[in-house]
Automatic annotation (TrEMBL):
Compartment annotation: Cell membrane
Transmembrane segments: 38-63, 75-97, 109-132, 153-173, 193-219, 240-263, 301-321, 351-375, 406-426
One term of GO molecular function: protein-N(PI)-phosphohistidine-sugar phosphotransferase activity
InterPro entries: PTS_EIIC, PTS_EIIC_3, PTS_IIC_cello, PTS_Sugar-EIIC/EIIB
Source organism of this protein record: Companilactobacillus halodurans
GO CC terms, sorted: plasma membrane
Record domain PTS EIIC type-3: where: 15-426
GO biological process: carbohydrate derivative transport; phosphoenolpyruvate-dependent sugar phosphotransferase system
Record membrane topology: Multi-pass membrane protein
Protein name, per record: Permease IIC component
Origin: domain of life: Bacteria
Chain's role: The phosphoenolpyruvate-dependent sugar phosphotransferase system (PTS), a major carbohydrate active -transport system, catalyzes the phosphorylation of incoming sugar substrates concomitant with their translocation across the cell membrane.
Keywords noted in UniProt: Cell membrane, Membrane, Sugar transport, Transmembrane, Transmembrane helix, Transport
Length: 446
């Protein structure tokens, strides 16, 4: 029996080791890492967009009326034009820069410029615009539509940024394609000429693809990506089933010491951000809000106080635990936990490799997501229309992100309370296990 138990344990550890290795490899894949880095840089832009949307549709509406209101709202509209409406244009060069830097390329700013150039090469040559009456459509050339440069073109910007940069780095590494002007030429000029031929080949490739799509299929790459890749992928990943599966796996990885953003950051963040931007645009134009699962939805109901909503565990410890060591860790973790930083609890209490606490930590995102999703679907709380910083404390976040819906605050309180009682029995078991292990370590016969 002992040998069987040892064998089973070895197989279990072998599985965990292999699963961990694969997860780390995927999470550290340079393309996914560059994608996360790029979105981290431009995230403040979308938070500012949320601020403009919130002011335009709440504060300004309370303070102004009629023609004065329309003039003042130019403020928020201008912010939308510089943020949400150019989201695809922002993300492409930033991905180019981050991917080039992460690959060790010596001229990442050139890669950034090439990504942006290739994105505009792939834009449609003609666009349809509505007339002044809002009904008659006119096809025009020589212009850009916010539909292509903004949120709907965001995934196109991601793919073009990744592909164009990868090709450019490959071409720039071929010595025969580099133009060397000698040592007496300023470095900036020398670098520009060294990538001239690779840039020419790269843009010619993308221009040829654009010409073939337009000539043979009367189509363009940006809209093809949106229709064939972005929307189907977003449809599954931001469905309640896909969302719960991804966050269940992400939090399970975290219990093994691998940060949940390895999975959720790569598979979810770009897509829920697209949903968030669509909601903000719809709210700004007084249209129907299209999406339930957004970036702010995650902050409000899924990651309250950080991954696994460990702020509920902190509350459970402070209210019900008599173990001094655990209470000390909870007290130290409370302040960062209020701002959704919970690594002190995850690694200090700890939750990682702590079997009893792994269970509620993995289950909680699913419970919070289901409660938030169906409460929103049934109209009990408003949909999220403002992107707030992820460090926004609980209770404040749901109120701001729903443009002042107090019901969202009540829902978050209920989710937190359920979390307390979900964590409580497992916390007690964890304390008993720790006490038993301490006794065994003290007993020389154990």
């Amino acid at each position: 029996m002992a040998s069987e138990s040892t064998s089973e344990k070895l197989e279990h550890n072998s599985f965990l080791d292999k699963f961990t290795k694969v997860s780390v490899t995927v999470g550290n894949w340079v393309y996914l890492r560059s994608l996360r880095d790029a979105f981290a840089v431009i995230l403040p832009v979308f938070i500012i967009a949320g601020l403009g949307t919130l002011l335009n549709n709440t504060v300004f509406v309370w303070l102004f009326k009629g023609a004065t209101l329309a003039k003042v709202q130019v403020f928020g509209n201008a912010i939308s034009n510089g943020t949400l409406n150019v989201a695809g244009v922002l993300v492409a060069p930033m991905i180019g820069f981050m991917l080039a830097r992460n690959k060790g390329f010596n001229n990442p700013i050139a890669a950034s410029a090439m990504s942006l150039a290739c994105l505009f090469i792939m834009m449609p040559g003609s666009i349809s615009l509505a007339g002044m009456n809002g009904k008659t459509m006119h096809t025009v050339t020589g212009g850009m539509s916010y539909l292509n440069t903004g949120t709907q073109g965001m995934f196109g910007g991601i793919i073009v940024g990744l592909v164009a940069t990868a090709i450019f780095i490959k071409l720039a590494g071929i010595k025969k394609l580099q133009i060397n002007l000698g040592e007496n030429v300023p470095p900036a000029v020398s670098q520009s000429f060294s990538v001239l031929i690779p840039a020419l080949i790269l843009m010619s490739i993308f221009a040829l693809i654009a010409a073939l799509l337009a000539g043979l299929f009367n189509a363009d790459l940006i809209n093809l990506i949106k229709d064939w890749i972005q929307e189907p992928l977003r449809g599954f990943n931001t469905s309640i089933v896909g969302f719960c599966v991804i966050y269940f796996c992400a939090n399970f990885l975290f219990t093994l010491g691998i940060h949940q953003t390895v999975i959720s950051g790569s598979l979810m963040d770009p897509l829920v951000l697209i949903n968030m931007n669509q909601n903000m645009l719809a709210y700004a134009h007084h249209a129907q809000i299209p999406n339930i699962i957004t970036t702010s939805f995650v902050s409000n109901y899924v990651l309250v106080g950080g991954s696994g909503s460990t702020i509920s565990l902190i509350i459970a410890i402070l209210l019900f635990s008599k173990v001094k060591a655990g209470r000390d860790v909870a007290k130290l973790s409370l302040a960062p936990g209020i701002f959704n930083i919970n690594e002190p609890m995850i690694f200090g209490y700890p939750i990682v490799f702590n079997l009893p606490l792994m269970i509620p930590f993995v289950l909680f995102p699913v419970i919070g997501a289901l409660m938030g999703y169906y409460a929103t679907l049934l109209g009990w709380v408003s949909r999220t229309v403002v992107l707030v910083p992820w460090t926004t404390p609980p209770l404040i976040g749901p109120y701001l992100s729903t443009a002042g819906d107090w019901r969202a605050v009540i829902l978050q309180v209920i989710i937190l309370a359920i979390g307390v009682f979900l964590y409580l029995p497992f916390m007690k078991i964890s304390e008993r296990v720790a006490a038993k292990q301490a006794e065994m370590n003290l007993d020389p016969k154990a």
